[in-house]
Every structure is written in structure tokens, then in C-alpha cells.
Specification:
It is a single chain. By secondary structure, the chain is an alpha/beta fold. It is 39% helix and 15% strand. Helix 5 packs across helix 6. It is globular.
Length: 306
């Protein structure tokens, strides 16, 4: 059964059947990544453009590797070498790329809504690799896959998203996806980092990290986005770590197995202590590996959709 939409713009409104299909397909591709020859001919003949208007390392490399593992032809676009620097409009840039007979566009942009706009001006399948403060669906999907891989389920788990909720597209996609799949979702952070009215999305708000640790099965700890001026919402990084940092002392106090996720890159000594970042509770590098499998699954399901 194909996905219900020809695009992946976010997880808001995406049915549970679609998410389950992506997660199940990722399991197949996760096995491919363990083979001596980590390549399948699934998307041979397809041309995919990585349209990145915003800096990225993990997401861009993960998508590129996923595309190559599926035998697709890949074109990488960066603003530094594009005609937008010469005054060409975004629309004209995209239309010129489409004229080269491409099939799919993976887009990352600092402005929310750009992936949706692309669906209006091109016939290609669009995958959102992060748009402004809106969504980052493949990150949430790989987070959910990693949780299920480790704990065997998503439904019924208590998951708390910790940190810079206000600036995070990862948080919003995780909230939509996890709730759809039956998890109980909370957020925790300073009041200045929690959007007003976020409870309307079906989440509970915590301001005490110790209580959040005590009452949850999973912590998805977000990076403090200093490039988005997130550091202006609290006095110092040291104070943030003192009040909301995940440390071994805090975890040991409750003597429980708790799963720690982080989308990276980590600000060590801010969101996580080094002891936690390298410790037994975290699955950060598993997330990176699973990210390739999830993106292979999304590319396959959209690229072979009737």
C-alpha cells in the first residue's frame, strides 16, 4: 500500500498507517546497511535534488547517502554557488532545476512553508528536510524508529522533549508523530523556551527536569540553538545546565533505565554532560545510522509511488 501523499512536508495530519509503513520499510533498509554491499537498485534512473538553503551536516549527508544506497542520481544545491546570489528568484531557480527533468526535491530552508510552496510550483515529490521553526519530519521518524528499536514499542510510552522547544522544528514533528503513534508526550524547559498554548497540541508541560526524569521512559533532549538566538532566553549556558542539563547524578538519583535521544550536534556541558553523552542510556549514534534507513524508506516509498 503506498503512502497517502506524494510528499512528506511534516507529520501533522499524517495517518498512523503512513508512519507505520515508513517505520516498517526502514527495518528492511536497516538490514541493507549491514550487508557487505550496502546498495540496492531500487531508485535507479531517478534524479533527486538536495536543495539546501540552510547549513546542515547530518541531515544533508544522511539524505545523500540514502540516495546513493538506493542507486539514485543525486544533485547537490547550495546557496553559496547558486544563481540566487546573482538575484535570481527562488521560484525561477526551482523552475530551472525542474527543467532538467528531476524527480524529487529534498529541501531545507530557514523559512517555514517553503516545502509546501514547492508543491505548488513543481511536479516533483517534495521531502521537507527542515523548514524554519515548522517541522523536520524525517528527524522525528528516525527518533521514533530508534525508540521502537530499543524499547519494542511506541504506544503507551511516556516521552519528554527537553530544552529549546520554541525554536525547534524537531520538537513539533516529534509531538505530532509520537501522539499519532500512541505515546504520551510532554515538554520540559525554561518558561521562556516553551511556546504559549503548546498544551493545545496534547502535551503536558514540565518546568522541573528532575520530575521529568522521574516520570518518563524516554527523554529526547534538544540542542540549544544558539544560532537562532536561543541563548538570549536564559542568563547563561552554565545556569541552563544547572537547571535543565541531563547529568549522570540526576539519572542515578532515580535509579531507572531511561532512554536518552539527541538530534545533534550536542553542546556538551549544556544539554548533556559528557558522561551522559557517552554513557549507557543514550542511543545518539544509533539515531544517526537509523536516519539513513528512515530516509531510504521515505525516498523509496515516494519514489515508487504510482
Amino acid at each position: 500500500m503506498p503512502l497517502s501523499s506524494p510528499h512528506l512536508l511534516g507529520l501533522q495530519g499524517v495517518p498512523a498507517e503512513d508512519i507505520k509503513l515508513i517505520l516498517d520499510s526502514a527495518t528492511t533498509f536497516r538490514e541493507v546497511l549491514e550487508r557487505p554491499i550496502k546498495k540496492v537498485p531500487t531508485l535507479q534512473g531517478k534524479t533527486i535534488v538536495n536543495l539546501f538553503f540552510e547549513n546542515s551536516t547530518r541531515t544533508r549527508l544522511s539524505f545523500e547517502l540514502a540516495q546513493k544506497r538506493l542507486s539514485a542520481d543525486t544533485i547537490n544545491f547550495t546557496t553559496a554557488s547558486s544563481s540566487t546570489k546573482k538575484g535570481e528568484t527562488f521560484k525561477d531557480t526551482v523552475k530551472n532545476i525542474e527543467a532538467m527533468k528531476i524527480d524529487m526535491i529534498v529541501v531545507r530552508h530557514e523559512s517555514a512553508g517553503v516545502p509546501h510552496y514547492l508543491t505548488k510550483i513543481t511536479r516533483a515529490n517534495i521531502i521537507n528536510a527542515g523548514d524554519g521553526r515548522h517541522e523536520h519530519p524525517t528527524q522525528a521518524l528516525l527518533d521514533m524508529y530508534s525508540i521502537k528499536e530499543k524499547l519494542g514499542r511506541i504506544e503507551g510510552l511516556k516521552v519528554c522533549i527537553v530544552g529549546d522547544i520554541a525554536h525547534s522544528r524537531v520538537a513539533l514533528s516529534n509531538i505530532h508523530g509520537l501522539i499519532t503513534m500512541g505515546a504520551e508526550v510532554s515538554v520540559c524547559g525554561p518558561a521562556t523556551m516553551i511556546p504559549v498554548g503548546i498544551e493545545s497540541l496534547g502535551v503536558k508541560v514540565y518546568n522541573n527536569i528532575n520530575k521529568a526524569i522521574e516520570e518518563h521512559d524516554v527523554l529526547n533532549v534538544l540542542r540549544i540553538q544558539l544560532e537562532r538566538k536561543a541563548g538570549t532566553t536564559f542568563p547563561t549556558l552554565r545556569e541552563y545546565h544547572n537547571y535543565y542539563g541531563i547529568t549522570a547524578e540526576r539519572l542515578n538519583e532515580y535509579n531507572k533505565d531511561i532512554l536518552i535521544l539527541h538530534p545533534g550536534p550536542i553542546n556538551r556541558g549544556v544539554e548533556l554532560s559528557s558522561e551522559v553523552a557517552d554513557g549507557p542510556y543514550q542511543i545518539i549514534l544509533n539515531q544517526v545510522t537509523n536516519g539513513v534507513a528512515i530516509r531510504m524508506a521515505v525516498l523509496y516509498l515516494l519514489g515508487t509511488r504510482p
